[in-house]
Give the backbone structure.
Amino acid sequence: MDKKTADAVVKCLEINVDFYRELTIFLMKKHMKILADDINWLTDSLNDEQAYIMKSRSLEEKRLALFRGLGIDNLKLSELSEAAPDEYKPKIEMLAGQLRELVENIRELNTETTEIVKRKLDNQKEFVKRAGILDKPEIYDKNASKVVSGQSAAQVIRQV
């Protein structure tokens, strides 16, 4: 790897580290809002989350294209610093380490958040079950009138 290639690798890693730091902050906030049952914030944040997903994909596609163009697409993140000129090794190793740590933090945060949501949904399912809400489904007759106690609303009105 020459100096020009190392410069490009450093810039790419810096962009990715900045993005994943920003994503980590967003996901931590989302995690806290889930704990607080802040449905309004969670609903409002769906577009932001979708934008993060799209940007993540875009950054990865650009990284792959760049590394392919530089002829280093066969190198793993851990191998980049080894292939770099000596003066770039510490910087690339530091950025690679930060990137690994951020990705691991995001993975852990997503796992914890998923588990919390699963528990909350299980609790809601149990509440609905105990309340008997699902035991009494609403039934409609062929005229789309709601059936109450075995009689449709139209039948009840006719009886009156």
